[in-house]
Amino acid sequence: MLDSVPSFTRLVVELAKFPGIGQKTATRLAFFLLRQPAAEAEALAAAIRELKERIGFCSVCFHVTESDPCPLCLDPGRDESLLCVVEEPQDLVAIERSRSFQGRYHVLHGALSPLDGIGPEELRVAELLTRLRPGKVQEVLVATNFSVEGEATALYLARLIRPLGIRVTRPAHGIPLGSDLEFIDEATVNRAVEGRRDF
Amino acid sequence: MNISRISLRQFRNLEPTELIPIGGFNVFWGNNAQGKTNLLEGIHLLGSLKSFRGARNDELIQHGETTCRLAAEIENRGVRRQVELSIGPQGKAARVDGKEVRRPADFFGHLRPVLFSPEEVTLLRGGPAGRRGLLDRAVFQADLTFLDRAREYDRCLRQRNRLLREGRGADQLAPWTEALVSAGARLRLDRGRYLDRLLPLLQKAHRQIAGGEEEVDISYRRGTEADLIDSLRGELERAKQREKMLGQTLVGPHRDDLEFCLLGRSLRLFASQGQLRSFLLAFKTAQIEDLQNITGVPPVLLLDDMTSELDRCRQNYFFSYLRARQGQVFITTTDIEPLLAHGISTARYFRVEKGTLHHDRDE
Q: Which residues are CB-contacts of A108 (< 8 A; sequence separation ≥ 6)?
């Protein structure tokens, strides 16, 4: 690294903290910024600053937002009887992109994992139950991931929600659309075959 | 399935080794501690990524070196593939046809070697873990997806054990118990289905080895997936208090024992050394047959020091079985006379001396 240029080194060290970015890519990015006009670098710095200044979490659904409550929670066109629970904001974004869901959301910010010290108190579970209490919600779609932890989280929530007289559902899983069977891992094919349906 | 070329570099005590085996019998012979079993271990690593002696990475690398490289060319129904494994102290990297393989599951299946080591006799008599391992390795060879399910169960188990150790309440434990029940029932189902296929083959092989009188059996939980889910849930319910006290999961496939039976009695408690050997021989023969039924090709066999452990009668059976069978075999032995006496007709002999391989003759 360029030890004689500490400000450069500092940028490389900061960039290398990003997920998926190693030392080499960080150095490339730093050189790229160095060659850019000052205005470009300023714009990036401002964008990063604004991210932390302006964006927070919605106090209702805990999605990322610039205004509280977030536009999704205020949208009158959304079906209030349907609530989708996801692990992370990016999961919500993925579902929104599909335009398949017209209800409201709740972001847990993680999944249960005792090995990582994550229990229900570390997640937005109490807030979820508070939202369900007024009785408007009739169905909760638990769209946590299909990992061991995501499944356990779904089971945990189902046990809490069902006694409230609310229907609990889980997305179907199986073979991705438009994909070739030959490229799919054995475990997915296995589950898809076991969960086959009448045609 | 055949290995048509093997290359080992900086592996254990072996000098750089290039080896062209033949489709039938390949014999590594020489005195003890010269490197014969290391050769088998190398081949086994190329199929399973694991040392059958439970060695760590740094033990596999030659003293004074930083990495070792193992490679083989595998021929399966006219298709040739190159598999390579480099082992460093931090980990293993696998390649198939020059391309890096990320998921271990994509590496397995190219070579599914069946290992037969006389030390495995002690597993029959020892603790439940040894018997489970013997079965689970066989299940996995036949169905590679078993590994994913075993890992899923293991993950549930570790998460649940953490909660038990921390003394968490029933509401937090419940989802992990449910996850454990469905993953665990699935493992028991996999084992049971495998045993359903294996048992007739095992009984047939055992009749041929030991004569008609001694009937063998393996008892393990059977039933539909729904039955197995109910029964595991019940077992966990009954173990609840003890689990709380001891802070770990006490029942489930990770604790199950398999009862190997001879004439309706426990092999572990009542069998003689000779009966144990017959049983193991029959088990391995059945495993080989099953694997061949499933893949359509005879698996590669790795036989470690067979002649010293088997008496004449069992040797006769086993070698006539091997002679009648198609497929590639690698054998280590200190003494080649019994092999010659058993008329191992087409064989390639390699003398192993101080880590060097001498291809000395073809029979």
A: A62, A85, A86, A87, A123, A124, A125, A128, A144, A153
Tens place of pLDDT per residue across chain B (363 aa): 899 999 999 999 999 989 999 998 999 999 888 889 999 999 999 988 888 888 888 899 999 899 999 999 999 888 899 999 999 988 889 999 988 888 777 788 888 899 988 788 889 999 999 999 999 999 999 998 898 899 999 999 999 999 999 999 899 999 999 999 999 999 999 999 999 999 999 999 999 888 777 889 999 998 999 999 999 999 999 999 999 999 999 999 999 999 999 988 998 888 888 888 889 989 999 999 999 999 989 999 999 987 766 777 788 888 888 888 888 999 998 888 878 877 776 789 999 998 888 887 777
Q: How far is A69 from chain B (nearest CA, A)?
A: 31
State how far residue B257 is from chain A, nearest Cα, in angstroms.
25
Residues of chain A positioned with their CB less than 8 A from the CB of B144: 186
- Alpha carbon B309 to its chain centroid, in Å, reads 19
Tell me which DSSP letter residue B247 carries: T
CB pairs under 8 A between A and B: 54
C-beta atoms of B145 and A186 within 8 A: yes
ipTM: 0.73
Distance from CA of A125 to the nearest CA of B (A): 12
Question: Which amino acid does the sequence have at B162?
Answer: R
Stated pTM of the model: 0.82
Domains and CATH numbers, chain A: 2-54 (1.10.8.420), 64-198 (3.40.1360.10)
Interchain proximity A185–B175, CB inside 8 Å: no
Q: What CA–CA distance (Å, rounded) separates B130 from B136?
A: 10
Omega of the bond leading into B253 within 30 degrees of 0 (cis):
no
